[in-house]
Amino acid sequence: MSSDSYRRQAQSRMQEIARLQRDKGREAERMANFQKQSNNASMSASRASSPSSANSYLRTAQRNSEQAAGAQKNIANIEDKIAREHSRLADVQKNLAREEEREADARQRDADRRARDREQRMRRIDSTLTEHSVLHRRTLSAIEKIAQLPEQITVVFMAANPLDQKQLRLDEEVRAIAEMIRKAAHRDAVKLVSCWAMRPLDLLQALNEYCPHIVHFSAHGSDHDEIVFQDNSGATKLVSKEAIVQTMAAASGEIRLVFFNTCYSRNQAEAVVKHVQAAIGMKTSIGDDAARVFAAQFYSAIGFGLSVKRAFEQAKAALMFEGIAEQDTPELFVADGVDPDQLILVKPPGA
Prior knowledge:
Blueprint: H1 3-46, H2 51-148, E1 153-159, H3 170-183, E2 190-195, H4 200-210, E3 214-218, E4 226-230, E5 236-240, H5 241-250, E6 257-260, H6 266-272, E7 278-282, H7 288-303, H8 308-321, E8 330-334
Parallel strand pairs: 1-2, 1-3, 3-6, 6-7
Antiparallel strand pairs: 4-5, 7-8
Helix pairs in contact: 1-2, 3-7, 5-6, 7-8
């Protein structure tokens, strides 16, 4: 029962007590009148001149005395009722006090809950504002990075296909890459240069001559972390991982990505990111079709202005679309502190 109900009960009890008090007052007044009339009749009887008159006054005194006694009995009954009403009022007031305490506790708990809710909302708002601030800073950073990009990037495709090795279909690979770049939204922002029959020293010449942003190796690779170049006679010339890494370290600072589209090249890719932002290598051997499809789609995504990470994932998806089960062969490596999702190489026109 609510405190309002108990208050109404208490009000009703107090009103009943007040009514009984008024009834008691009226009965007390009646009793006093009857007693007065009885006393007056008794005095008249004592002064009566005849026995009959005295008897008449005595009967009147007796009747008034009986009525006074009846009024006194009524007063006693009313007092009993008043006592019971006081007892009931005390019980109601006790219940009212308990209910008011319970409701006060409930209001306090509700106030505490609302305060906690407000605090949680404020924390969420603060968190959202913080997230928005972080996103804003990231967006500004991304915009600044895009603004700093060159108007055109150069991709140098370095091919070696020694006569004493199994012949690779490198011409198909470079043709597929060129076609996908031509179809890209920002095709004019990507310049593809192909260098064929690469000898080791030709690598340094190409890096100095073209100052590329992406270096793409397309050749055989050995399981000893070597890339198969060719010598002056067109025969195999092995170049070690250390030599490749040293060459990238000594090249111009324009190189941002090295793409090893060669077998067993993950170690070269992992090592070279000490000097460039990102590298792609193959953890095992890779087939001609897989190398062509993967590379073509990667450069297509780059030409659409996507990040290196998204381009890498799209290139893996292309292998799956073509039913070439080598999507787990390529691996992407980035330098410390570089987020591949934020690494964009192509600057959209007008950005």
